[in-house]
Amino acid sequence: MTNAFTLLKTSPTGPRAGVLRTPHGDVPTPVFMPVATQGTVKAVSPEELKGLGASIVLSNTYHLYLRPGLEVMRRAGGLHRFMAWDGPILTDSGGFQVLSLTFLRRLSDEGVGFRSHIDGGSEHMLTPELAIEIQETLGSDIMMALDECPAFGGDFEAIKAATERTHRWAERCLARRRNTGQALFGIVQGGTFPELRRDSARFIAGLPFDGYALGGLSVGEPKPVTYAAIEQCAPLLPEDRPRYLMGVGSPEDFFECVSRGIDMFDSVLPTRVARNGAIFTTEGREDIGNARFKEMMGPIEPGCDCYTCRTFSAAYLHHLFRCQELLAYRLATIHNLRFIVRLMQDIRRAILDGSFDGLKESFLRRYRPADAEVAASQKQKWMEAQKRKRSALEAEG
Amino acid sequence: MTNAFTLLKTSPTGPRAGVLRTPHGDVPTPVFMPVATQGTVKAVSPEELKGLGASIVLSNTYHLYLRPGLEVMRRAGGLHRFMAWDGPILTDSGGFQVLSLTFLRRLSDEGVGFRSHIDGGSEHMLTPELAIEIQETLGSDIMMALDECPAFGGDFEAIKAATERTHRWAERCLARRRNTGQALFGIVQGGTFPELRRDSARFIAGLPFDGYALGGLSVGEPKPVTYAAIEQCAPLLPEDRPRYLMGVGSPEDFFECVSRGIDMFDSVLPTRVARNGAIFTTEGREDIGNARFKEMMGPIEPGCDCYTCRTFSAAYLHHLFRCQELLAYRLATIHNLRFIVRLMQDIRRAILDGSFDGLKESFLRRYRPADAEVAASQKQKWMEAQKRKRSALEAEG
User: Region B351-357: what's the mean pLDDT?
Assistant: First the structure.
């Protein structure tokens, strides 16, 4: 794989704008990747994704490996054809899901043995080699190396061991990849220990990856810790390769992380909160279920160019959510994704014309981030729902 | 209201093809009307409805009156603008829903007093006059008179009383309507008693309605009874006005009822079964959840021109249903509605070119109707779910 990343504007410690070339098209950076966990960005069609300006989506190796499975993927001719998305796809390696969704895990240097969270019983072993094999079968444009993403709050020795294992797995992923034209990104770990972060960045940067990701962040640590970790790592990564911060998706974070040299983001946040009726606007997130929207005949965000705002009133969206109509989830998802994609387009334009600091300042002055408590309680609710699902499966298994 | 119905081909006791002109466009008949209960055809957008060839939708007076309510409808400028559908809309009168969804009903000549099934508490009184006022506020193209739709299995005297009340209410609806350019259809009742059906058809036909509906059918009676009721009524209705059979939506029924002179149909069947994964094909309904679709890389119905079949494999739709992904419900709904709309287009073309009997014969020879037991058990499941919802509300109230 040759370097398919072109920087149009760069700075050793500041924002960058570039283009990442992939077999399925160009990705202007910085970029946000909507998440298509099971081969569909929840509630929207491929045409709607194209229409709102998404240039790349992220899909989950772990989920697609378990269901529909590799045999179906082979017959379909890969994930692009299966999900009818002809744009670029990045696939994660499955490491994060194996460690957060499964139970009865057995972690060793060989890989992670686990039981499926879907059928609650079947046993599997995810190794670095299998992670690559799955992603080659999926035919994604960008593959991720298998990493061990430790939970936030582990002690130094535990994080150090996980980080070193991640390094050994990174080498095995590189050794296993075939010449398929797919890019392969390495993942820096190291938890919130600056020394481990830097060691990991140096080690991973020394391997011939096509891009470099920061993993193990946005898993519960305070935001200043996330930002500090980026500052520790970014200067150690090759300047001419894309840098991807995994799992970050809130508007205020984009500015802070782009400022520190990040090029790529993904998160379920904009789509998940949309399905709960939380709508992004330039002033912050609004709850469409709030009674004040009941008679609002204008769009939820005046001036927004998304399909939802061009077509329907806030009152209609409020009504759909109150009635739990399926169309509600789609319309809110389209709006939130368009909001995020457009914001990233604005950020990129500002980087190119030198006005990034001004845009950052004016956006953040107006935008009221979701209250940390609200955000934490939403995350808590979701994690409890996941736990309930898992218990139900265990009970059945 | 002048007669806006033009028959292009007719027969006193056989199939007819025509065009119904409305303020929001022409409706070629025979026609199937997808149901937009709460101002949205579940899971699809207005553009998708247009794209699959729907020429008119049906919305529910009862639901929209309770939520979002008339004040919102007035501010929105009517239902068309509220739901962003610029084609024709027929609204039912609310009578059927009041009698099937609410509890603590008090039925009198004045109207139906009931408690909302939504907030479980608020009290309302639906009168013929209010039914018209609501529908004028909604601004539908076709309004329905308020009727009393008795449950299947009532005795002669009970059905007779309900039918006579329906007649008195029909006159009050006509007296109350204003000159809004909206059509108003009367409803024939009479249960399954041929004599009452004929009396009702004669009475309603004698009133100056713009169209005539058969109500109180498809509520649990055997199909031959439904067909017989049509045969009893159709010859008594004015030939130059549209005839609408309420609540019928299965492919085999279209042929049988069009054969007997019906022009318009509505039913939640195609959309409701779609959300359960039941897919219409020319050979009958298929369950997309069946394992035999897991690796089927062709469309669910080869040759189908719907968005779903043109874009995705049966295997992908199977996967989405297995994962309970929101996109599944949309894709199945689009297919089923397109199947029904296209079938009705084929029927109309066949009537016009004189080949209806051949089409009917060849379709019914191939098409395997949903097993009566399957259909009954599906209906039963749905009714039980409704009952559970209602009990939950009563418990809260």
Answer: 97
B149 in the same domain as B61:
yes
Q: Which of A267, A297, A314 is the last residue in one of the domains?
A: A267
Rg (CA), chain A: 20
- This prediction has a pTM of 0.94
pLDDT tens across A39-51, in order?
999 999 999 999 9
pLDDT tens profile B252-279: 999 999 999 999 999 999 999 999 999 9
Chain A hits for B297, CB-CB cut-off 8 Å, are 75-76
Same-domain pairing of B306 and B207: no
Residue A132's domain comprises: 4-267
Query: Is the residue at A392 inside a domain?
Result: no
**Rounded Cα distance, B53 and B90, in Å:** 16
Give the Cα separation of A217 and A214 in Å (integer).
7
User: In chain A, which residues have their Cβ closer than 8 Å to the Cβ of B39?
Assistant: 316, 319
Residue B354 main-chain phi, psi, to 5 deg:
80, 15
**Cα A141–Cα A147–Cα A148 angle in degrees, nearest 5:** 150
Q: Is A315 in Cβ contact with B68 (below 8 Å)?
A: yes
A228 and A198 in contact (C-beta within 8 Å)? no
Segment B133-170, tens digit of pLDDT: 999 999 999 999 999 998 888 999 999 999 999 999 99
* Number of helices (H), then strands (E), in chain A: 16, 17
Q: How confident is the model at residue A397 (pLDDT cuts 50, 70, 90)?
A: very low
Q: A315 to chain B: which residues are within 8 Å by CB?
A: 68, 72, 75-76, 82
* Catalytic residue list contains B155: no
A123: exposed, middle or buried (C-beta count within 10 Å: 0-12, 13-18, 19+)?
Answer: exposed
CA pair distance B219, B384, nearest whole angstrom: 15
Kindly state whether B330 is in contact with chain A, defined as any CB-CB distance less than 8 angstroms.
Answer: yes
Q: Does A296 touch chain B (CB under 8 A)?
A: no
Same domain, B94 and B25: yes
- Kindly provide the ipTM of the predicted complex, given to two decimals: 0.94
- Contact at 8 Å (CB) between A58 and A32? no
Chain B contacts of A67, Cβ < 8 Å? 319, 322-323
Does residue A375 form part of some domain? no
Whether A282 and A252 share a structural domain: no
Nearest CA in chain B to A328: B43
Catalytic residue IDs of A: 92, 266
Burial bucket for residue A207 (CB in 10 Å: 0-12, 13-18, 19+): middle
Cα–Cα dist A91/A87, whole Å: 13
The Cα A177–Cα A135 span in angstroms is: 10
The separation between CA B218 and the C-alpha centre of its own chain, rounded to angstroms, equals 11
Residue B29 three-state SS = strand
- For chain B, the domain total comes to 2
Residues A35 and A182 in one domain: yes
**Are A213 and A302 members of one domain?**
no
So what's the pLDDT on residue A259?
Answer: 97
Say which CATH number the domain at A162 has: 3.20.20.105
Task: Check B319 against A43: CB less than 8 A apart.
Answer: no
Q: Which of B267, B282, B299 is the last residue of a domain?
A: B267
* Confidence check: pLDDT of B330 > 60: yes
Shared domain for A262 and A296, answered yes or no, is: no
- In angstroms, the Cα distances linking B9 to B3, B14, B18, B230 are 17, 10, 7, 19
Nearest residue, CB atoms, A39 vs list B44, B83, B319: B319
**B318: closest chain A residue by CA:** A68
Q: How many CB atoms lie within 10 A of CB A9?
A: 15
Which pLDDT score, from 0 to 100, does residue A395 have? 44
Cis check: omega of the bond before A68, within 30 degrees of 0: yes
The beta-carbon neighbor of A325 closest among B40, B82, B319 is: B40
- Give dist(CA B20, CA A289) in Å, integer: 39
